[in-house]
Design brief:
Blueprint: H1 3-8, H2 15-38, H3 47-67, H4 71-81, H5 93-111, H6 114-134, E1 143-150, H7 157-167, E2 168-179, E3 184-193, H8 199-207, E4 212-219
Antiparallel strand pairs: 1-3, 1-4, 2-3
Helix pairs in contact: 2-3, 2-5, 2-6, 3-5, 7-8
Length: 226
């Protein structure tokens, strides 16, 4: 039995079929990465995540080709992959959706007809662009992540919260960390700025308060900032 038969005998595929499926998965992965980059409002997506999207479709396609219709092989592969642990947290549910899109593209390329895969994938990409143009985010106000440290014994909470509310339309606490044995607290808020308000104004107002230090702001929607 030659190498080609060893590789594809379980699915009765030719080497040409395997190459076509892997190439199709590569195209779908690259397309997923490009669409993610073009529709990303934050403008700070990592190159590593884009490369991951491009590779994920090919890897998934290869896995589907190896599994084929062999149920025992599928369960063995799931058991082997279960030992993998990912320590990078996905902060945005949108990122998770694109990861699933890359996975689905690879799975489809490895198991079904190319014409059907391209048709469905194209429809999903068009839908993503339509949602991006419609800006279905629930709000058109610029979003930021505000992080600062405060000394609880020197400044009451209502003082700095009054300053924050004066500049924001909505806010939510997403992180709280104790430092220096509780003498210093680090707060992380997700805010939606009011129209006409700049992040610099908010940072300046907070910085002059007694007991407030290390004020930092990360734009989550850079193209909306004034």
């Amino acid at each position: 039995m030659n190498f080609e038969n060893i590789l594809i005998s379980s699915q009765h595929l030719t080497m040409y079929d395997v190459i076509i499926r892997v190439c199709l998965a590569f195209i779908l992965g690259i397309t997923t990465a490009v669409v993610y980059r073009r529709t990303d409002n934050s403008q700070n997506c990592s190159r590593g995540f884009l490369n991951t999207l491009a590779m994920l479709s090919m890897v998934t396609c290869m896995v589907m080709i190896v599994i084929g219709n062999n149920v025992a092989r599928a369960f063995s592969l799931v058991g082997a992959l279960s030992i993998i642990r990912f320590r990078t947290a996905v902060k945005d549910t949108r990122d998770t959706a694109f990861v699933f899109l890359a996975l689905a593209g690879g799975m489809a390329a490895g198991t079904t007809r190319p014409a059907l895969v391209v048709t469905i994938f194209t429809g999903i990409v068009i839908l993503v662009y339509v949602l991006h143009k419609m800006r279905l985010s629930g709000s058109d106000k610029p979003a930021i992540e505000l992080r600062f440290s405060a000394q609880p014994e020197e400044i009451p909470e209502n003082l700095y919260m009054d300053v924050i509310r004066r500049f924001t339309g909505s806010l939510s606490l997403i992180g709280l960390q104790s430092q220096k044995l509780g003498q210093l607290m680090e707060f992380t808020y997700r805010l939606e700025l009011k129209r006409g308000v700049s992040p610099q104004e908010l940072a300046t107002e907070l910085s002059v308060l007694p007991g407030i230090m290390k004020v930092g702001i990360l734009s989550l929607d850079q193209e909306d900032l004034p």
